[in-house]
């Protein structure tokens, strides 16, 4: 018995998916039952890196999601619309859906999964977070015995590629262009560079790990634009590397229903396992009880790795279809609880001012005696104690002082910085970054 796939999108990921579907030999035997029946694109004239029968390709994506012959719709066009509408239409027509689209799931997951559960179909999203790394299915299935209380990861391949190459002195724009050419970046790479993509991904992981959603506008998000070559050099001197981290924590005895969810560039100690995750690789460190720490590592972007996750999700659906275990089947009473998503309650995200973390700051001051003492007084007045301090001469008049603090409440640290900014001897504070 064969199952027909309607593939929406034949770009980086869609082409990778097509290549796997066209060569099932040596992979899971269920793939032999999958037929790539229809493919939807924007332009019929573009040269394609995949041979398809001429009738397969169309620009009428609405016809694919309503085609009675199509069993599974794979959405890899990206963006919010028409992706959201096509996914909902596919569900309304009783199709199972596989998507790599974290932007849509992070914003419309509630609507999409409610519709899917009502229709008795599955929406699978392994590729949406950390590309080829299995993390969505482990959270849904293999870690189910645990209480998960923290997750921390590098969830964006493009920015990790840029930060890695910047360590050897490359230029930001040139490196971004390389990441685009390698197929890592989003259609609009500001989603990568400004942390939106990592924010979408940590929001998705939060709902799966902690059992409640978060509103995206509450997720604190900073990208990597403010990370300069000077910061990377100071970080190296101080024993750190800079990574764009996505972090989510569920406080113990969470009486006020608040979680910590944030994305920002972070100084990571060189000996930390996330410090050696380079290029477009991703990693997610999960703290779970009773398991302890578990880290998932692998390729987070690119055609092959992402297609690996998309096609593996497709195989999961084929397995259900083959065994008749879908809710749309009258003999099956319920949707498979380990493959579906059903979190409709919301957490609040804790304010950043209450976060307790370490900080790095680079401060430009007049090169006068007594300046360090004045900085120390401002920090001390706000309960900020310093772990290390490096001073470098910029020129005859200006010095640059890089400090790393001990743990401090973010609100207190910001107040100290405001006072420091107003000191006559202080020229500017070019950067402030959190430290793991
Ligand atoms: N690239 C990666 O490494 C990863 C990507 N993802 C996600 O996968 C999805 C796809 O990414 P990617 O393959 O890189 O994107 P691409 O831009 O390479 O491909 C998009 C494809 O969708 C088609 N398309 C886009 N909009 C429309 C539309 N309105 N109507 C019809 N066809 C349309 C394009 O058609 P045409 O070819 O005619 O222009 C193209 O074939 C995104 O959601 C992305 O976030 C997830 C993990 C990793
Ligand atoms: N643009 C994304 C692609 C995968 O999700 C990234 O760079 O990680
Ligand atoms: Na994944």
From TrEMBL:
Reactions catalysed according to its record: L-homoserine + NADP(+) = L-aspartate 4-semialdehyde + NADPH + H(+)
GO MF annotation, one: NADP binding
Class of enzymatic activity (EC top level): oxidoreductase
Alphabetical UniProt keywords: Amino-acid biosynthesis, Methionine biosynthesis, NADP, Oxidoreductase, Sodium, Threonine biosynthesis
EC number, UniProt record: 1.1.1.3
Gene3D superfamilies: 3.30.70.260, Dihydrodipicolinate Reductase, domain 2, NAD(P)-binding Rossmann-like Domain
Record-annotated active site: 201 (proton donor)
Pathway per the UniProt entry: Amino-acid biosynthesis; L-threonine biosynthesis; L-threonine from L-aspartate: step 3/5; Amino-acid biosynthesis; L-methionine biosynthesis via de novo pathway; L-homoserine from L-aspartate: step 3/3
Residues annotated for NADP(+) binding in this entry: 8-15
GO biological process: one example: methionine biosynthetic process
Binding site for NADPH: 102
ACT domain: residues covered: 360-436
Keyword Amino-acid biosynthesis: yes
Record bears the keyword NADP: yes
Cofactor: a metal cation
Coiled-coil intervals, chain numbering: none
UniProt superkingdom: Bacteria
Binding site for L-homoserine: 186
Similarity comment: family membership: Belongs to the homoserine dehydrogenase family.
Name under which the protein is recorded: Homoserine dehydrogenase
Organism, as annotated: Acaryochloris thomasi RCC1774
Classification lineage: Bacteria, Bacillati, Cyanobacteriota, Cyanophyceae, Acaryochloridales
Gene name as annotated: hom_3
């Amino acid at each position: 018995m064969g199952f027909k796939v309607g593939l929406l999108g034949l770009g980086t990921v869609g082409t990778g998916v097509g290549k796997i579907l066209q060569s099932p030999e040596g992979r899971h035997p269920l793939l032999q039952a999958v037929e790539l029946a229809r493919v939807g694109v924007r332009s019929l004239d573009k040269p394609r890196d995949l041979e398809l029968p001429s009738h397969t390709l169309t620009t009428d994506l609405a016809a694919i999601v309503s085609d009675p012959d199509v069993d599974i719709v794979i959405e890899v066009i990206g963006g919010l619309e028409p992706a959201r509408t096509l996914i909902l239409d596919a569900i309304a027509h009783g199709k199972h859906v596989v998507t790599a689209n974290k932007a849509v799931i992070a914003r419309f997951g509630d609507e999409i999964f409610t519709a899917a559960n009502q229709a008795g179909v599955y929406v699978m999203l392994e590729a949406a977070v950390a590309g080829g790394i299995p993390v969505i299915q482990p959270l849904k299935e293999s870690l189910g015995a645990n209480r998960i209380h923290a997750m921390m990861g590098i969830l964006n391949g493009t920015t990790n590629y840029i930060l890695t190459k910047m360590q050897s002195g490359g230029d930001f724009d040139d490196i971004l262009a390389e990441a685009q050419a390698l197929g890592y970046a989003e259609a609009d790479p500001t989603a990568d560079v400004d942390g939106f993509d990592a924010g979408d991904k940590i929001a998705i992981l939060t709902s799966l790990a902690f059992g409640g959603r978060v509103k995206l506008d509450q997720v604190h998000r900073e990208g990597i634009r403010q990370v300069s070559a000077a910061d990377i050099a100071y970080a190296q001197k101080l024993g750190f590397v800079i990574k764009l981290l996505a972090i989510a924590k569920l406080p113990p005895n969470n009486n006020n229903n608040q979680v910590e969810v944030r994305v920002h560039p972070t100084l990571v100690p060189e000996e930390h396992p996330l410090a050696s995750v380079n290029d477009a690789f991703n990693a997610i460190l999960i703290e779970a009880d009773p398991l302890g720490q578990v880290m998932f590592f692998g390729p987070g972007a690119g055609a092959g790795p992402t297609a690996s996750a998309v096609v593996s999700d497709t195989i999961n659906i084929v397995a259900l279809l083959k065994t008749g275990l879908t809710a749309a089947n009258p003999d099956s009473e319920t949707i498979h609880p380990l493959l579906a998503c059903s979190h409709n309650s919301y957490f609040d995200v804790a304010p950043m001012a209450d976060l307790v973390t370490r900080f790095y700051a680079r401060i430009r001051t007049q090169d006068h005696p007594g300046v360090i003492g004045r900085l120390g007084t401002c920090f001390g007045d706000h309960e900020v104690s310093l772990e290390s301090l490096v001073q470098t001469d910029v020129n005859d008049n200006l010095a640059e002082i890089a400090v790393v603090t001990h743990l401090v409440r973010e609100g207190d640290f910001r107040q100290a910085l405001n006072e420091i900014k107003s000191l006559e001897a202080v020229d500017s504070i070019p950067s402030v970054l959190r430290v793991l």
